[in-house]
């Protein structure tokens, strides 16, 4: 499953190629609570069809009423991009379903340049990170390849949005837990691959949309080439497989590196990596294990939920409370028993 940004851009491109009129809306600024973060996008076709989201639905409905033939005989306008604001007053915030005190500002691009969108998609499909800059005074768009994600910005005149490649997940070990976790990651817009040199595991493992890699995990991690939008998770329960993958992953800029295992096994793994593989306590600070947040999970499906929640929290820059840490939570429960 593609990320929502890619889906919006690709659909916009397809609509423009088909001769449809298209409005591309981007959340530019927010004040107070807002349903969607800055940089979120939606595309609106001239007949009222919508892909993507900038709110819980009410603002999308208003844009459909204003700019499409579904309710407006004039349809979508031409011209330079516009800035519109929703939720300035309490009454308007309530009308558009915004949280109390919530206000958001949108940039509306009418019939964005098809060649520019095609070039952007070509770069994203090639795995490149692209800085898209829009000048609202001229509607000129520039695309620049970059190596580091940049915060979305809008100064009232120029919008800068860094796009793609999508988040990626590499799972080591083709078991039941990997099936659940891969499915959840796909629904969250990750591109997922699973690696396992054991044919007896890989032959019976099948989740649509996941790349299957048969080979030694350390080789597969190098081939995966983890970047800032990548996570690597060991699920094999076999130290010969998980440890090799972790050693390679720790040399990468991956935003999340984790491995399944009990508290005891996690501690033994850390001691093993320090004693035999030259790691230090400092280098192992990036290693998550036991993985997941504490929800009392027992089944593979529940464990996958806890792991996916931890991955998303770290990806989104959320500091989890100590009570969510598996080791801390279990010690607290044992102490109170």
Describe the structure.
By secondary structure, the protein is an alpha/beta fold. Helix content is 35%, strand content 23%. It has eleven helices and 15 strands. Strands 12-11-10-13-14-15 form a six-stranded parallel sheet, with helices on both faces. A hairpin with a 4-residue loop joins β2 (41-45) and β3 (50-52). α1 (4-17) packs across α4. It is elongated and about 70 Å long. The chain starts with a helix and ends with a helix.
Features of the shown structure:
11 helices; 35% helix; 23% strand; alpha/beta; 337 residues
At a glance:
The chain is built from 11 helices and 15 strands. With 337 residues, it is an alpha/beta fold.
Return the average pLDDT rounded to an integer: 89
Backbone CA Rg: 23 Å
Shape: elongated
Q: Give the % helix.
A: 25-40%
The number of distinct β-strands equals 15
User: How large is the share of residues in beta strands?
Assistant: 15-25%
Stretches with pLDDT under 50, minimum 5 residues: none
Reading side by side through the largest sheet, how are the strands ordered? 12-11-10-13-14-15
Helix-strand topology string: HEEEHEHEHEEEEEHEHEHEHEHEHH
Q: Give the distance, in angstroms, between the N- and C-terminal Cα atoms.
A: 44 Å
Quickly count the helices. Answer: 11
The chain-level structural class is alpha/beta
> What's the main sheet like?
6 strands, parallel
Explain the layout of strands and helices:
Elements: H1 4-17, E1 22-31, E2 41-45, E3 50-52, H2 58-67, E4 82-86, H3 90-95, E5 103-110, H4 114-125, E6 129-135, E7 141-146, E8 153-154, E9 158-163, E10 168-172, H5 176-187, E11 191-195, H6 199-202, E12 211-213, H7 217-224, E13 230-234, H8 239-249, E14 256-259, H9 263-277, E15 287-288, H10 300-315, H11 326-336
Parallel strand pairs: 10-11, 10-13, 11-12, 13-14, 14-15
Antiparallel strand pairs: 1-2, 1-5, 2-3, 4-5, 6-7, 6-9, 8-9
Helix pairs in contact: 1-4, 5-10, 7-8
């Amino acid at each position: 499953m593609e990320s929502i940004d890619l889906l919006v851009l690709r659909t916009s491109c397809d609509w423009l190629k088909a001769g449809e009129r298209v409005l591309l809306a981007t959340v530019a600024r927010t004040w107070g609570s807002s349903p969607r973060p800055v940089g979120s996008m939606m595309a609106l076709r001239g007949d009222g069809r919508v892909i993507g989201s900038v709110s819980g639905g009410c603002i999308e409905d208003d844009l459909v009423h204003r700019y499409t033939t579904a309710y407006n005989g004039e349809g979508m306008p031409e011209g330079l991009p516009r800035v519109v604001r929703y939720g300035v007053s309490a009454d308007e915030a309530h009308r558009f379903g915004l949280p109390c005190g919530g206000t958001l500002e949108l940039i509306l691009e009418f019939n964005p340049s098809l060649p520019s969108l095609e070039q952007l998609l070509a770069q994203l499909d090639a795995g490149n990170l692209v800085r898209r800059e829009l000048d609202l005074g001229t509607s000129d768009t520039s695309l620049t390849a970059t190596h580091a994600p940049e915060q979305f910005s809008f100064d009232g005149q120029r919008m800068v949005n860094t796009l793609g490649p999508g988040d990626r997940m590499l799972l080591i070990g083709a078991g039941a837990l990997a099936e659940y976790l891969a499915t959840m990651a796909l629904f969250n817009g990750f591109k997922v691959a699973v690696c396992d040199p054991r044919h007896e595991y890989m032959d019976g493992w099948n989740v649509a949309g996941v790349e299957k890699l048969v080979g030694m995990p350390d080789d597969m991690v190098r081939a995966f080439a983890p970047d800032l939008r990548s996570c690597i998770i060991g699920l094999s329960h076999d130290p010969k497989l998980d440890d090799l993958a972790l050693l390679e992953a720790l040399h990468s800029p991956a935003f999340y590196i984790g491995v399944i295992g009990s508290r005891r096994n996690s501690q033994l793994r850390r001691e093993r990596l320090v004693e035999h593989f030259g790691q230090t306590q400092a280098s192992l600070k990036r290693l998550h294990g036991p993985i997941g947040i504490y929800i009392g999970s027992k089944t593979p499906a529940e464990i996958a939920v806890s792991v996916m929640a931890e991955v998303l929290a770290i990806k989104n820059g959320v500091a989890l409370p100590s009570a969510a840490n598996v080791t801390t939570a279990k010690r607290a429960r044992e102490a109170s028993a």
